[in-house]
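FAQ

Q: What does a record look like?
A: Structure on top, sequence underneath. For example:
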């Protein structure tokens, strides 16, 4: 009897976690981006793991849970294994990416906006953006300043 109870609780916890992950993917817009930009190839060899990013709003962030990659073709993003439900790996070609630099208090950030989905920006640190720009080379989109 106790064995079944423990198994039922474990299954319930996994289903709740899966549901929360699906909900968060919809809340942030990651799942919406996934319908248009689902990656059908592995991340490039040049990648940065355990990065933080704010998706859609500054309060909906993935702290140390995103892997970013970049090459001459585009921007790659994926979340850690535990958040995969509702969060497909993304590949966004540079032709669909706008880069906007900004500042909040003393911190500098870079915000990516995507063609067709300008209401779902992805915000990263300036340091990470510099690494991505170096990996992208000449294909990196021209940066623009955010309005204060």
């Amino acid at each position: 009897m106790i064995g079944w109870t423990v198994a039922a609780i474990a299954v319930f916890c996994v289903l709740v976690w899966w549901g929360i992950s699906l909900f968060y993917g919809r809340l942030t817009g990651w799942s919406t981006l996934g319908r248009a930009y689902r990656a059908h190839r592995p991340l490039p060899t040049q990648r940065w793991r355990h990065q933080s990013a704010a998706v859609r709003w500054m309060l909906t962030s993935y702290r140390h849970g995103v892997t970013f990659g970049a090459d001459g073709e585009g921007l790659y993003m994926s979340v850690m294994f535990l958040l995969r439900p509702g969060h497909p790996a993304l590949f966004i070609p540079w032709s669909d990416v706008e880069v906007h630099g900004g500042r909040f208090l003393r911190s500098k950030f870079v915000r990516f906006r995507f063609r067709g989905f300008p209401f779902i920006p992805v915000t990263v640190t300036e340091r990470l953006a510099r690494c991505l720009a170096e990996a992208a080379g000449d294909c990196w989109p021209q940066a623009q300043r955010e309005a204060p």
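Q: Is there anything notable about this one?
A: Strands lie at 47-55, 61-70, 74-79, 90-93, 97-104, 107-114, 117-125, 143-145.
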